Please model this.
Amino acid sequence: MPLRLPFWRLSAAFVLLLGLVGPGWAEDAKSVPATPSAPAAKIRVVATFSILADFVSQVGGDQVAVTSLVQPNADAHGYAPAPSDAKTLADANLVVVNGLGFEGWLDRLIKASGTKAPVVVASAGVKPIEAEDDDHAHHGHGHHDDPHAWQSIANARIYVGNIRDALERIDPAHAATYAANAKAYLGTLDVLESDVRAAIAAIPKAQRRIITTHDAFGYFTAAYGLTFIAPQGISTDSEASPRDVARIIRQIRQEKIPAVFLENISDPRLMQQIARESGAVIGGKVFSDALSGPDGPAPTYVAMMRNNVSAFTAALGKR
Model:
């Protein structure tokens, strides 16, 4: 038979128990802490490639879970979406794209996914520059704008502002957090740009010319005055023709261009051939359209820009 205690004894026992746990509990019931609630779900953001994913992470911080469709060290120009990408988009709260014709495969993927997530074009507001109009510059893209706008740090600020505004719209409860994160990151970009300008200014003007695999640095040239020459156009979809390669080799010899650079997203054999036949040195690996992995030299946008400028100055800084 269960033991039954009078109500007053139960009450006394309960008060004694509260006293053992903490006297304040018995004195003021309002101070009893609420049962911890489950952490709020993070905003699921899908970025098309790794540089955008880093921008989202910098602004979103702990409030976002970011997925990059095109992984670090991978080429977004010729990306072939996997079936899993459609599901990733379908589950997203926000999709961040570069725009300017960079992701030629994206519209079909979005349609196939049926996603209802808003799509923000990170480059909206950037003043585009025209890509060089040659035989291969626009293969498969159907546009004449250079999409690599992030190579100008001033444009990167525009990307950050667009991402901040999009996150604030879909998650107004954390708008202050996004604004604060963006402000801090913009300060970091200010320091970065000052350092980049100082580094390029230290290179003798006659030396400020280099060769890269494809034409991804037009905005860098416009912003900082370092000239890039590439056998491929703005897209890596097309291969450089023998005529293009021969032209580059003649130009290197005639203008005494000191260095060629390998890109992390490209097959190194083309640049190795150009270096071998022209006499230029290989100045190292640079990052154009993708970050490195987390253990590499360019796991973030800021690290990418610093790595590239260090490679340029090391190869070109000698008179």
Summary: The CA atoms of residues 259 and 280 lie 5 Å apart. The chain is about 45% helix and 10% strand. The first strand starts at residue 43 and ends at 49. The radius of gyration is 27 Å.
